[in-house]
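Hi support team,

I'm opening this ticket because the web form for multi-chain structure prediction keeps timing out on my end. I have pasted the exact lines I submitted so you can reproduce it. The total is 1094 residues across two entries, so I didn't expect it to be a heavy job. Is there a limit I'm missing, or should I split the entries? Thanks in advance, R.K.
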Amino acid sequence: MKIALAQINQTVGDFPKNAEKICSYIERARRRNADLVVFPELSVTGYPPKDFLDVPAFIDENLRTLDTIASRVYDISAIVGFVDRNKRRHGKFVHNAAAFIQDHKIVSVHHKSLLPTYDVFDECRYFEPAHTISPVKFMDSILGISICEDIWNDEEFWPRPLYEIDPIENLISYGANVMINISSSPFTVEKHDKIRLRMLIHDAMKYKVPFIYVNQVGGNDDLVFDGNSVVINAQGRLIAQAASFEEDLMVVDIENPAVQIQPRTYSPIETVHMALIAGLRDYVIKCGFKKVVIGLSGGIDSAVTAALAVEALDNENVVGVLMPSRFSSQGSVDDAVKLSQNLGIAYKVIPIQDVFETYQKTLQTEFKGIPFDSTEENLQARIRGNILMALSNKYGYLVLTTGNKSELAVGYCTLYGDMSGGFALISDVPKTMVYELARYINREKEIIPLNSIVKPPSAELKPNQFDQDSLPPYDVLDGILKAYVEDARGIDEIIRIGFDEKVVREIIRKVNRNEYKRRQAAPGIKVTSKAFGLGRRMPIAHNFMCQ
Amino acid sequence: MKIALAQINQTVGDFPKNAEKICSYIERARRRNADLVVFPELSVTGYPPKDFLDVPAFIDENLRTLDTIASRVYDISAIVGFVDRNKRRHGKFVHNAAAFIQDHKIVSVHHKSLLPTYDVFDECRYFEPAHTISPVKFMDSILGISICEDIWNDEEFWPRPLYEIDPIENLISYGANVMINISSSPFTVEKHDKIRLRMLIHDAMKYKVPFIYVNQVGGNDDLVFDGNSVVINAQGRLIAQAASFEEDLMVVDIENPAVQIQPRTYSPIETVHMALIAGLRDYVIKCGFKKVVIGLSGGIDSAVTAALAVEALDNENVVGVLMPSRFSSQGSVDDAVKLSQNLGIAYKVIPIQDVFETYQKTLQTEFKGIPFDSTEENLQARIRGNILMALSNKYGYLVLTTGNKSELAVGYCTLYGDMSGGFALISDVPKTMVYELARYINREKEIIPLNSIVKPPSAELKPNQFDQDSLPPYDVLDGILKAYVEDARGIDEIIRIGFDEKVVREIIRKVNRNEYKRRQAAPGIKVTSKAFGLGRRMPIAHNFMCQ
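Hello R.K., no limit was hit. The queue was backed up. Here is the completed structure from your submission:
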């Protein structure tokens, strides 16, 4: 049996284009003599459709689109992810579903049993779980069709399974001998190699059946799907792997497989680099933008952001803006110019001193006798934000903010200032990982000026200001943040890891008190196991670990 | 049996204060000779604790706090909402639970069966549903203890129940003859009178048992809990109703009840008015602020916001700021001054013209030959935002934004401009309801200058600009928005209601394309059945109904 894995990149709610792509992949798979072509989870609607799932008109158009696709299926069979109606009297109105299509007809429909409802996932919000599970006879095989989370609950693989039932075990017990899983499984660093692939190999060996795993690819808002679709044979050997972060059509003969292959391996920083580029490119394209504009401070965060943007969009679509004040060092200006030259991007220089002084004059009666403080620091950041937004408004550029995760965690950033912008590209990249990215970007030649990497980080909003005046060293900060934000550890546990109690309390207090800033932050790309944003939902008004 | 309904206002994660309040209500109920005192859902932690439920240290402190509370229970019994651990091998780590406490001991624990996971609710994200349901013998009665959503699934009351099981039916079948429901049921306009109370009366009549319903009160971020705890007797008659939007301790003898009472009725606009005041007061207090600052344009939105703030916080805690430009009419300035005088609040006048001109000079080379457009309009709004934030930074005021729901829906607002601020008080109030609120605020005397109500609304960001130049009349706009946002109707359905197709398409396109602005909006108070924010989760990058 020749199975085509169609690893495609869809846009949420773009039914005509989504259908066109699915049909073109069906055609390509047929030409390559595949018996069956398999598409990712919810490939008709794009994933995640979020609250459009509550709009009946959206469900209707998805069903009409599925019918159109079905009418184009002949001389090949297809498995397509879509939203099915729940026809029962109770429960949620729709199912997350897979259609098995043959000879222009939907032969059977398979519902998702396990609905992830944690982190960025909200599937219990929308979907009714499967009430029946049944395998499908196809050629000489019996296919066990499952959807994403359905394979993530093996009792032996996971120390504590989240769900009581195991749909894979059920499918096996009903006689399935080829497992097909359609997924929209988002990227986080090390997830594919360390979890997903190991789990699939474990399951194939356990049940002695091949696993065909088809994952979505591309970016949708804060999530990037890495593709990496794979085929594992009945001996638990990886025999095919589709591209990472790119569309792919991979045809595999599962009865006469090629020899075992080595998994394509990338270092963690390589995958983060790919994820950020793919995610940014898709956000820009899917939102209808062409060019981005970035404030260049001469520091490492804006340099890394600009370098990634050039890789995602090409240098002619990236505009840098230098906005020096009297606190900006000549070195910073030089570093930003050098970066622009290295990247081959246009840059503008728009000094903020006059506007800043006019604000001060406007406020001088009001603030008479009160010393310069964070008010004036924030004002400078806000003037820069306003200038970037003016360029955005005038020319239709998307503003990229350049803040990293460590800053966002502790509120070392200005609302409506450096946080102004439509997409916060590296907002889930901890500062220590920003350094790694910079070195990776420079792996062949100096793109990011070395000085931006080696100089002590500074916001340059007052004289002789350095990040480390108000924050612990970034390796300490990032260690505490990982323990608190990603691993949800309490104060006592973090102290036991070996961090200083006073520092731990101060950092956690800052994280908790700055939720209000993050609530107003632009979306960014999730790369860690716990990003701020939709995957971490915290109250603003509370009093837990705030003292 | 005398039951005390303890309708309290807790703060999320403030365990010492939450415990202190619960203990003081236990003491008060004992002094009033109650046999049983009942507290709302999750009264130990505050509701909603959101992702703190994923932090083991939070669960631990909640359990220790419950033990402390239990040690103070004697000569009275108590039912207290808390987070219990799930001791099974599968599933979510915790239960939403009620502890039944007697003689210093937790006698039994009752888990919530139905976990709301829609709109603002995420309970499947955190909680494992009840695996067993059992009533409790108490004095001569058998208590059926349930938690919030557990009572919201009656087959006869709801046209299409969301869940397959009905815990109330189960409790009755196990012999319960007094039903106790502990809730944290947030306010939306008309929900109490038109749904909740009717449902409770329906259920009491259906099962012929009394229902004791104890609801949380107070604001937590975007949600306001209205209290309105009630006792319905076995004949389905309302015999007691606690305060709306205020803490209350109500002791009711359910065997020897007072005669039937009439439900206290408020008009919809009265309840919205109370909800906004209660929600703002709690947000300010629970976030640790004292004073708020509001930009006063002379228009109706900022006038209503300021008037509500004065009712919530008193006039000495509200500061108005007039920031006229050369596009501001003298009438607007006069209206803002008159409002400030009527409210008795301090106001400052900080003109923005100099800063605006300096921005224009700074950008003149860049924007040479390009006409004045929304860029310059937005710049003015952003200067005002910056000035308010400067006052916030310098003095520790909370900035209230003044935008209404209709503007936010169609993006008729400026990111980092008039959207700057920590709390968007009326962001779920449609413009037509803002007018109703203004008239209600003026019910006894002119507080909001009549001119602010009757003049055509204008952003005054360019000469002769009126809202209705770019938007349909507000009654049309609000009609379309209710159909699309609140009722999730498709384009065809909205046209069938009687709206013009071109207008409908244009409005829906604007709503869909402006999700990026709303993602960065400050939280506001939910008053309608569907507020923007955490209850409406839409993708930004998509292509559904965008053309």
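A quick check on our side: Chain A is about 35% helix and 15% strand. Let us know if the file doesn't open in your viewer.
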